[in-house]
Predict the structure of Ectoine/hydroxyectoine ABC transporter substrate-binding protein EhuB.
Amino acid sequence: MASPPDRIPPIVRRDRTSGPTRRSLLAGVAALGALGASGCSRVATASGTEGGELLERLRAQGVARLGIAGEIPFGYIDKNGELTGEAPELAKVIFKRLGVDRVQPVPTEFGSLIPGLNSQQFDIVAAGMYINPERCEQVIFSDPDYQMLDSFIVRKGNPMGLRDYKDVVEKKAKFATGTGYAEIGYAVEAGYRQDDILIVPDQVAGLNAVETGRADVFAGTALTTREVVKRSTKAEATEPFKPIVKGEPHVDGGAFAFRPSESSLRDAFNRELHKLKDSGELLRILKPFGFTENEMTDMTAKELCGG
């Protein structure tokens, strides 16, 4: 989103098919009780060993803590209080193969994912976070498990004819996007004043802003926008498009984030991820959340980090 930023409904999500709103998702988090409380505790500090020893510690304790942002379809708590989403479901498979039996959610706001990771509140960010150079200065990423274009939520019929960020600027549309979303930077690069952007928590709030007239347009991932408008009688999603970054059309890739000291865990995770890509199992895992063959990618974290 992300979505992210980065990169939060009916789903299917980073949130994707008909399903709970963010408010109900957060209520589900509260219902977890002791689980949520334990998820807020700090994880063990990384050792000085090159590449880190986190994988060994996770194997010993039998659980990996996942930072999620309550965003459908990327990582969220469903109406039954269960952890799900494309990133958590993929993490369950990979960590099982790495010898870690289970995963545990640590819900937070999207903008707090990287600070929370680096302050030891959880072991890995499993929120479908977009890889970009700024984030690559703070964390290390696995290779992306999906690629994504942008899309807008607009009023039915798209009365202002908004199809990309250039249109938003030229037509002086009231623009909204989510907290910490990459779309903030894309709008600014197109010439939109950052101080004029309406920042809302997620795509559900973005839909509401468009439906009530607080915004003319909300920008998010193509997947989240098309899913969140499914039950709306007042709004629709535009055709997906590539944002312009440094003068060139850009495709985002979402991935898992790790602390810079834990390259051994990241590398082991990557090896299993590539096995899933090669076998076609990755698409099978992500398909229930609205992902298609078009969202599969061979991009690497290195190229998305700008290196």
